[in-house]
Design a protein that fits this description.
Length: about 280
């Protein structure tokens, strides 16, 4: 039986949830408000909250000073490309580890996870030399490959966890019906793991979208994504908070819209599947 909750406890937990939600959302809200302030208002002490002269001059300046459409396109290509390439490699790897484990499978998984502990700067110099040797510095393909390799352990681990929840008997039945390895992965395993694959794709797109270390150091103009676009508004003369806030809002708006739309479509698909 469901445990009864008093109205007082319900009100308390609701207020606590709203408080935590507002704390998480506050930096985004403050950045949004700052993007509509003048530079003098943005650095005023005490800070000005809502009652100020709102202006869109910062957004006009940001668009005039930089190539926002190119940076947006680079971010989309790099984030989506690295994630899809990682999925193509991780699905067979996770299938092998989940359904055909060996003596060293757990050791391999732990080793893959341990690579995330390596400081990124430790491999910066070799990667720069390799990129220069192949002539791919400041290119999308370089960032796609590097971000795929960085996030590949997370993709494999997540898919491995989801695949472990699928009964092996279903795959054995598919083999008895004559399915080869390719058809087993594409037509049996993948449709059953759609929620897990979708959440893995969404998480890794966000990770690749927010990656700043590699994108700032390995790009200049041609492949510069939105992280480089934001960093360009940090000048030696100081931080232009209002313009930096406008650039930040323009950078995070697409991923927020993408996340909301993806979540809505995923919930709709799962609901339709459950009803069907």
């Amino acid at each position: 039986m469901a445990r009864a909750i008093s109205p007082r406890k319900k009100l308390m937990w609701t207020a606590l949830s709203w408080g935590i939600g507002l704390m998480i959302f506050f930096p985004i809200m403050w950045t949004f408000l700052t993007s509509f302030k003048s530079e003098s208002t943005a650095i005023s002490d005490p800070p000005v909250w809502l009652f100020f002269d709102w202006t869109t001059e910062n957004y006009s300046t940001v668009l005039a000073r930089s190539n926002y459409p190119l940076a947006l396109m680079n971010s989309i290509i790099i984030a989506v490309g690295s994630t899809l390439l990682g999925i193509l490699i991780a699905v067979p790897a996770a299938w092998a580890m989940a359904f055909v484990p060996g003596k060293r499978t757990k050791d391999v998984l732990l080793w893959m996870l341990s690579t995330k502990m390596l400081p990124a700067v430790g491999v910066l110099y070799p990667l720069v030399l390799i990129a220069k040797y192949f002539g791919i510095m400041d290119s999308r393909i370089l960032l796609v490959v590097i971000l795929m390799l960085i996030n590949l352990p997370i993709i494999v681990w997540m898919l491995y966890t989801y695949f472990r929840e699928i009964p092996g008997e279903i795959l054995e039945a598919a083999r008895m019906d004559g399915a080869n390895l390719k058809n087993e992965i594409i037509y049996v395993l993948t449709p059953m793991a759609v929620p897990g694959i979708a959440s893995t794709i969404l998480l890794n797109i966000i990770l690749a979208w927010n990656e700043a270390f590699w994108t700032i150091l390995l790009t200049t103009v041609n492949a510069a994504p939105l992280t480089k676009f934001i960093a360009s508004f940090s000048a030696p003369e100081g931080l232009f908070y209002a313009k930096l806030s406008a650039a930040s809002i323009m950078a995070i708006a697409p991923i927020l819209i993408m996340g909301w739309f993806s979540q809505k479509q995923l919930v709709r698909g799962l609901t339709f599947g459950a009803v069907k």
